[in-house]
Amino acid sequence: MQSMLANSTNFNERSDYAVSLVYVGKTKEAVELLQTLEKEQSGTYIVAANLGTALELLGNNEEALKWIREGIRRNPQSHEGTEWLHAKILEAKIAAQKDAYYFKKHSVLELDPQHVSSAMTIDGRTLSPKQVGEAIEYQLQERLQFVKPPDPAVASLLFDYAAIEAATNILESAKGLLKMAVEYGYPADRVEAQIKLYDRKIASMKTEQNILYVIYAVVGIGALILLVKTVSFVFSSIGRLITVGTNSRGRADRINTDN
């Protein structure tokens, strides 16, 4: 299949071949082919997007950012509208090239774990926590096909994703993401502080659940006791009525007998 694509003169097939070159690690060849395709048919979205990705894998982040932005311009809804995050990743990687400690002090999105439960504005666009979380998940799925730990950008994304997950979904899964962040090189001291915070919240939630269970149990037992008392009262009342009725008939029988 690959040899067939390599000898093809069809534009789309050669574009697919460039992608296959990236997957087998021949990224430089992929860049050269994509650059040729761009000259032949300028304006194609997929060429711009793949060129940006291939250049990033070669470490040319500034040129990669140029092409990712061009891809967004050509097709803003590509990759389910998440390529804005790819651009943010490249911006952070460029900053890290200038400051070796950048990812020890910053994250890709600079999210504050204490303030991610409401809409946030990123590069002029207002996004809900759900939209940001979905964008991170999508970009991570694509990125992890090529990137192995340690990788500060991925570690940073995982940390940001954990903040979103903790605020909008499940604390236990947020802890799992934080542990992955450490595996990819995120500062362990920052992660440990968050994990301790999540552990306290989880313990608090379990305590609240236990209190609720006790309340439900007390209410249930109380209702059962009330039901038993009510039934007992009803049966007792019926019993008294039957007794009274029997006595009344008995007295009436005796009176009639006397007559």
Any descriptors?
259 residues; mainly alpha; Serine Threonine Protein Phosphatase 5, Tetratricopeptide repeat; two-stranded antiparallel sheet; 12 helices; 2 strands; elongated; disordered C terminus
Termini distance? 119 Å
Major sheet size, sense and barrel closure = 2 strands, antiparallel
Task: Give me the count of strands.
Answer: 2
As laid out across the biggest beta sheet, the strand order is: 1-2
Oligomer: single chain
Structure notes:
The chain has 259 residues and is mainly α. Among the domains are: 75 residues, Tetratricopeptide repeat domain (Serine Threonine Protein Phosphatase 5, Tetratricopeptide repeat), CATH 1.25.40; 96 residues, no CATH class. It has 12 helices and 2 strands; from the N terminus they run ααααααααββαααα. It has a two-stranded antiparallel ribbon with strand order 1-2. A hairpin with a 2-residue loop joins strand 1 and strand 2. The C terminus is likely disordered.
Secondary-structure topology with pairs:
Elements: H1 2-6, H2 11-23, H3 27-40, H4 45-57, H5 61-74, H6 78-81, H7 83-98, H8 102-105, E1 120-122, E2 125-127, H9 129-143, H10 152-168, H11 171-183, H12 188-258
Antiparallel strand pairs: 1-2
Helix pairs in contact: 2-3, 2-4, 3-4, 4-5, 5-7, 9-10, 10-11, 11-12
In short:
The protein is mostly helical.
